Amino acid sequence: MTDKKLRELGVADAVVRKAVLDALEEESGAESGLQAEYDKAMSELENVKKQAAVERAILEAGGKHVKAILALIDMDQVTYDEKRGLKGLDMEEIREEAPYLFHEKEEQKKGTGVTKSSLKKKEDDIRAAFWGLK
Fold first, then answer.
1. Is the entire prediction scored with pTM above 0.70?
2. Nearby residues of 81 by Cβ (< 8 Å), 6 or more positions away
3. How many other CB atoms sit within 10 Å of the CB of residue 60?
4. 3-class secondary structure per residue, the chain
5. By the 8 A CB rule, do 57 and 89 touch?
6. How would you write the pLDDT of the chain (134 residues) with one tens digit per residue?
7. Contact, 90 vs 105, CB < 8 A?
8. What is the rounded distance in angstroms from the CA atom of residue 121 to the CA atom of residue 134?
């Protein structure tokens, strides 16, 4: 708002116009300061989200020591988008570079976990109990 607009609105006193203009200027300065704080906070939040996503990827890849693995990653090359996830992070390359920082992948065998010999013994015990041989 300008001095001319204040005159058009019927504010005739110059002191009042000056006070209104000063208040408006101060308010716009405070608003821009708040916007800068908001932008800074959002930037920090995005960095925290990216850091958490990278740490999760490290743990999912079987990392033993997250901080040591993070030291090998150039975080400036990594981008994070909530919808698309992480980009620029190659865990296989890091695994090849420092395999000692990762757990060995173990393939899970399907089954009950009971050996055949113990199953055979249980079947024999059940058969003997049924026929009254024990």
1. no
2. 87
3. 9
4. CCHHHHHHCCCCCHHHHHHHHHHHHHHHHHHHHHHHHHHHHHHHHHHHHHHHHHHHHHHHCCECCHHHHHHCCCCCCCEEECCCEEECCCHHHHHHHCHHHECCCCCCCCCCCCCHHHHHHHHHHHHHHHCCCC
5. yes
6. 666 666 666 666 676 767 777 777 777 777 777 888 899 999 999 999 999 999 999 999 999 999 999 999 999 999 998 888 889 888 899 999 999 999 887 666 666 665 666 667 777 788 888 777 65
7. no
8. 14
What is the widest separation between alpha-carbon atoms in the chain? 117
The encoded tokens of residue 2 equal: 């300008």
Supply 124's token pair.
């024999």
